[in-house]
Design goal:
Length: about 110
Amino acid sequence: MADVDDELWNEFHRVVNMTSRELGDWLRTRDAGEDAEQFPDRTGPPTGHEVLAILGKRRHDITDQDAHVMRRVVERVHEQRRDDLEPTAGQAAWRHKLMSIGHDPLKPAD
């Protein structure tokens, strides 16, 4: 088990603003097609599935690998967004890339 500090835990849950259901649905529909239909749980990028798994865990169940993914996702969202995470329109490909790791840039910040 990893020791995840409050800052990482809170920031991860702030930048990942999609629910596990929303993310799971997005990953399944994003790559829906003839090949994806055979393996619907394998569609979308690996990081998206790692985020989905983390969302289903309690804090004390987070592993070192999970903590690494959490840091990477926080960094990627901050690289692409303003710090306030206010809803921002952009190109569809940009939005879809962020949604694949659990962040919808059109969703209002909590």
